[in-house]
User: Fold Prohibitin from Saponaria officinalis.
Amino acid sequence: MLTFGKEFTHAIEAKQVAAQEAERAKFIVEKAEQDKKSAIIRAQGEAKSAQLIGQAIANNPAFITLRQIEASREIAHTLANASSKLLLSSDDLLLNLSVMGAGATASSGKR
Assistant:
């Protein structure tokens, strides 16, 4: 029967532990690189979105009103599905559309 000395066995175990730690470190580095790429892509998407929204507002000021209506609808939906009930004025839901409409009409009439 072939037996190995304690030092040899310890060296083999240390080598296996070192290999596992190297693989773990490699995985951590790869994950960090993927996270970095993901953050860059997300930032580029957000920048493009902001640019497109800016262009939409410049081309059609009513776009802001549309976004306010969409936000109001989302708020109303969230509140409607809430377990507790609240009483809010339409101003709290960003529904002061008559003021927005009058402002948009007045500003477009001055051009």
In short: DSSP finds three helices and no strands in the chain.
